[in-house]
Amino acid sequence: MRQDIATLVELQQIDHQIAKIEAQIAGGYAEIEKSGLEIAEGRAAIAQLQEKIEASEARRRELEAGVEDELARIKERQTKLMNVQTNREYQSLLKEIEDGKKNNKQREEELVLLLEQVESLRAKLTEETNVCEAKDKLLGEAQARADQQAAELNDKKGKIAKVRDEKAGEVAPTLLRKYEMLRQRRNGTAIAPVLNGVCRGCNMNIPPQLYIELQKAQQLLSCPTCNRLMFHEVEEEKV
Asked: I need a labelling partner for 67 at 20 to 30 A (CA). Which of 41, 123, 181, 212 fits?
């Protein structure tokens, strides 16, 4: 039984090594994913800026056409002034001409504001585009590094996995199944040391009689609190 316990402890140490490698690989790609999300947000901002610029340009064209149309109407009314028959008609045409000039003045003021707005939007668009392109380049470099690191770590993991398979082959099938079940349910730790009557898997005291039996190492025992398999660990003497 002591050998079974020792084998399980070794197997768990190997599994912890594999889990650490997998976490390193995942951590490397997590940064890539985060950067990718930032770039996606930047591209969305660029698309919004482009939409605003397009809308502003459409409004500019609309205002410019309005100015041209209004100038044509003003010119037409100025021509009519030469042929009016009554003072009332004359005053009416004058008012229409004045209103037309007022409308064009408002259009021209809006045009000035639009041009300033478009200029500001284009500057922002250039800035955002440059930032996004720079991030894209850095992301490509980071992706290459992460892929290289992942390849190296996976190679290391493969070698450790072979050792794990050999070690797992030394464990009885029923015990291995129990170990795997506990490992999945207990955050990767299926067998825990007990030091001075305390299970290091859950940091809870185990009953005194169970602790006595555990020290005999004649059978595999489980923690009554966390259900992990247990083994007795002797406290190192302080020098």
From this structure: 123
